[in-house]
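Researcher: Structure prediction, please.
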Amino acid sequence: EFLERLAKGLRAHPSVMAVSANYDNREFGEQVQAVKGIAAGREDGTGGLAGFAFMVRGEIFTAGCPLFGLGPKGEPGYFQFWYGDNDFTNNLDVANAVYGIVGDARVVHIEGGSKTSGDGKGKRLTPELAEIVERDRKNYEAKWGS
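Model: Predicted structure follows.
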């Protein structure tokens, strides 16, 4: 039912371009609560798009969409691997697009061993993954600043 609830939130609000999970079990009256930015450590009710569980309108990714440029191979709607959540919400913010959290699409975000930053127990990134993260950081900062 989780995906159905996200889709219902998008369908009910034609102006909303993306919705994400209700990751901190907030209560609010409307079906979709508008937010700004990415959740990224703000699991305290202040909100933001939950990068680990969100749904967007398909037209965002079609060729010619004004929100996003072409990727390195000319593909539309290209996003970074590690910095993609932030890149996505920055593009939405620049376009003054609306995005939000669907109240009844609840999810429990369990912090685990991150594949992008190590597991906190001395485990290091693989050289290949570290290279991808560094590439994406540089691309993101070239576009948006540090």
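Model: The chain has a mean pLDDT of 78.
Researcher: Thanks, that helps.
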